[in-house]
Every structure is written in structure tokens, then in C-alpha cells.
Amino acid sequence: MLNTQLKNVVSLKSCLGLGKIDRLYHAATFDWQSDHGAATGSPAKGTTRSTGRTEVNWKNIDDSTTAYSASPISGGNNSFEIWMFGKFTGTFNQILAGKFAHTSGTLGTGLTLKGPAATTGDGDRPLYTTPSTTANSTLTTDMTTAIAIGSGVAVFFGATGPEATGKAASSTNATTYSNYLPTQLQTTTGAAAGDTATVTNTLQYQEN
Amino acid sequence: MPEEQQLPLKDIYCTKCGEETPHAGSVDDNGEFVFHCTAKAEPDPKDETKEVAHHFIKFPADVTPEEFQALVDIHHFHNEGQVQASVQQDKLRALLGVSLQNVETIPSAGTVEVAQPQISEELKNSQEQVVDTTTEQPTS
User: Are A77 and B113 in contact (CB under 8 A)?
Assistant: First the structure.
């Protein structure tokens, strides 16, 4: 009863300042994580899991520690894939409406960023494979050009880990994971030597 | 205000001006209960010649005491700018049907290493050989 009535009381929402509440009452705790190493287990996941990531870089090595400048990608070759994902803890009812995209930063000539296809069902969630520099044909989304996050690919959520089955458009699990969000930087011999521009990848989600 | 007397107005204070229990409530023409701070006023952002109460909450007059208190708690905490116990957040979301949209970003970069073309190396070697040949010619 009250719920329905309140939805029509604009002044209340204005008073509460929902824009601010987005931050004040942001109850879910988010953490960027990534998997590395040989695929292990079923469903497969990385041998090692890196947490608290504040950046993930495309390199000629599969780890979370080497500086990208110390492990350059040879022009004409590809980076190892990065198998990152999001982990949600804290207090929330559910996590839903996930989107993933490259949202800012411009990659130079000869650089192509490939990413996952939209996850529209548990059966088409990205499946972990041992990272390599071979072009990953399952990364069918060209993420080279920055786009609005609203146009990003759909992301599903579920329990246990990014590798686990049971991913769905929303998750009510107390600890929720996104599906894997793999990316790979592919280069041509025409790519300029040196550091690439820094780009921003974004995961958008809703919580309630 | 009979409605106000019936509601559990305990531990309420204006978190903006710090006054304790300076609030009043009334039922407006639309039958909605308006709860506001009467201690101080501030310019109306829409019309600077007018003043508006610090804070107000407007909700249906038939709100139950429990629902009212939940909203007061939420309003209270919101203006303190603090994240309080999750129960209040859950109440807020349940009452307002709020779905919060968030974005998490992460920067990424790489370094590209471009090998020197092989033909350049060959030319360089060839030139070096020519130089060497010249310097090693017999002087006889």
C-alpha cells in the first residue's frame, strides 16, 4: 500500500535526494578481480585469483604483478587475455542489469580490443581458458572504440565464482560474482611502439 | 495537529541546523502528511524571495506509525550523510521501490614493442662490411 503510494510522491524522492542516496546507500561492496594461470577445475577457472585490482593491463605475460612496460606486446602479436570479473559483497537484495564496455580512452592505430559477447543465458557465459597470446576467437565483441555504458554487452551474475554455472540476469546471493569479462589487446605490425593510451572499462549494475 | 500527536516522533532533530525536535507536521490539501523543520528556513532555490523549511518529508496521511518511523529514520540518516545499519537501507528501498544504478571502472593499458625491420639490419651489416673491406685493403 504505502510502497505504491510513495512511488507517486515526487517530493519525498526529491527530499531524500536519490542522486546522493546512490552513494550514501550504496550498500553492495564491489571488488575487481582477475584469474590467471592454467585452467583448473570444472567449470574451469584460473589457478590463481587476484583480488582488489585497481588496474588490469594487457601484457605479454599472464600475471597480475608485472608492470606492463616490462612486458611489452610485440607488434603483430596479441596480449594474453585478461580474465577479470566483479565480486559483490555487503548488504543488498539483488544485483542485476549488468553492462560491460570500454567507456573512455582512445586506442591508437593497429590496436584492437576484443571482449566478450553479451551474456544472455547461463549457457553462453564466457568460459575460462588458459590465457595465451593466440587470438581468442570467443571474444567476438570489438571493444576498440569507447561507447556509452548503456550500449555495453549484457553481464550475468551468480554465486560461487565467475566460472560457476547458474548465472542469471540477477542474483540474490549474499556473495555474488559477475560472469568472466575477458579482454585481449590485439595488435598489428603497424601499431606504434610505446605505451598505449589508458582506457577505462566499466561494469554497470543495479542493486536493490 | 492530531496526526502528529499520534505519530511516534521520538529522537527527531534537524540534522542540518542541529535543533532538537523543532519539527511540525500537517496534512496538506492533497491529503499528504508534510513533516518539516520549523527552526530555521533557507532561501527557496526556485524563488529567492521566499523561504522554505530546512527539510520536509511528504507522504500519505494514512501512513502507519511503523512506516512513518522508518521514513523518519531514513531521512534522518540521509541528512547525516552516513551509511547506517542496513536495515534502514532495506526499508528505504522497499518503501520507495528504489533500484540503485552504479558503475565500477578500471583503467587498462599496455606497451607495444615494435621490432626493427630485418632489412635495416642487413643494410647496416652490408655497410659495415664495405667499410671493413676498405680499411683492410693492402697498402702495397
Answer: no
